Amino acid sequence: VGESPTARCRWExxxxxxxxxxxxxxxxxxxxxxxxPTPSPSPGTPVPTTSVECEDDPxxxxxxxxxxxxxxxxxxxxxxxxWExxxxxxxxxGCELACGGCDNPPSPTTVTQSPQPAPDCDDDPxxxxxxxxxxxxxxxxxxxxxRCAWEDTAGTLASVACMKACGGx
Length: 169
Hints:
Elements: H1 5-8, H2 19-22, E1 46-49, H3 70-75, H4 77-80, H5 91-94, E2 109-112, H6 137-141, H7 144-147, H8 158-161
Antiparallel strand pairs: 1-2
């Protein structure tokens, strides 16, 4: 996190805790010397975070080509801001400036955890990502904010096939 705090302090862990909460010193906050874990909020609860200065992560690059940096994304942001980086972060997050995410004035940001699905909501058991058959709806649920934009070989988005995992029902 400390190597690129501008982008990485906004990452969310598997338990829903932001990196800025767990890595306070790297993110520029005084941790107060406490090693106590930060409790995770209940699902659907907004988590206020401190807004960071808008800039591109100098370490971000595309998943399949290290030459696809934020500068490359900026040349054609419409399709490229949806690309996934080598670390799993979307270009729209890592390349916030290149993707036009800096138009809003600085203000506190709210991150909301995935809502709990309705009991009759099901994921498609046959759906999987187009690059890996192991990337099913359960896998999508582990990082839904990024993976719900994935599609299968037929072009079906995870957000459509994995409604439960993506909080769509």
